[in-house]
Request: fold
Amino acid sequence: MRRTPDPTRRRLLAGALAVATALVLAGCGSEGSDSSAAQDGTTASAGPWSYTDDLGQKVELDRTPVRIAAYGDAAAALWHFGVTPVAIFTWMDPAEDDMFDGLDLSETEVVGSTYGEISIEELAAAKPDIIVATSYTGDTADEMYGFKDKAQLKKIKAIAPVVAVAQVGSMKDVIETNERLAASLGVDTGDGSRVAKDRAAFEAASAELTTAAKSGLSVVPMYADGDGLYLAKAPDDPALKYYQDIGVSFTEIGGKDYYWEILSWENADRYEGDILLNATRNSYSTKQLGEQPTFARLKAYQAGQVHPWLSTSMDYPSQTKYMKELAGWLSTDRDVVS
Reply:
């Protein structure tokens, strides 16, 4: 899933981290965890387990992990593959994050809901066998997205190995990596499985979106707050890149920065699109957007063609649902720019 607009600012605003001592970490790790705690849809294995992640880390354990902790986006994706995490940490209250809609949060421990603020003691108490994180271009095994700093990541690795799923390239590649990880954890992904059916539905939704995109309508994904308007660059977001690869037209966004071009509200009308996708995670509402005079001049806003840009995790069901919604807008909205 995409980065939120300003992770650097979130790091600066992060509060004090609850740090456990080395003795607490040693005493609360995953060794001796209950092997009967296999997650939904998985089958625990007594044999050795080996997995190489997207950062090149090779993790080898005596048995297949059954207690999984994960960063929010990775947790939601694994959940939809049938792996219910014992603990999650993320950058906002997951109960208010639409990425977790339909998932029973009572089944897992939330050990962090502000970026970089992870309760080491609570995470250790969950006794994870592995911890799944997301990574981006430039991340390394010692410093990756989702963690406050190298020191924090080192403490967390003392609890359990951390494996990364890179959120780069095409969405389909990221989903396939999550599927490979889920399969290694015991999820049935073969013919006739629920995952196979989800995969087929994803392919059907992709074809539907390709057909709808022939309307030629242009799309602008965005996020807005008091600082201004953040416009997303489709090639830098795995989901948007996939939509673009299968035919969706995105307005080309300029600027040299990764992922976003940030505009002041005075310049909010620099780019036009037939459809505006407004992020649902902490972004201004459509009403608030219209209160900005420059934004209110955009043709898509005046035509009522501002739609939600949902926070969809990298799995087949989540992306299938959103692609069908996007296909609907591309089929029914009208050309207001050309």
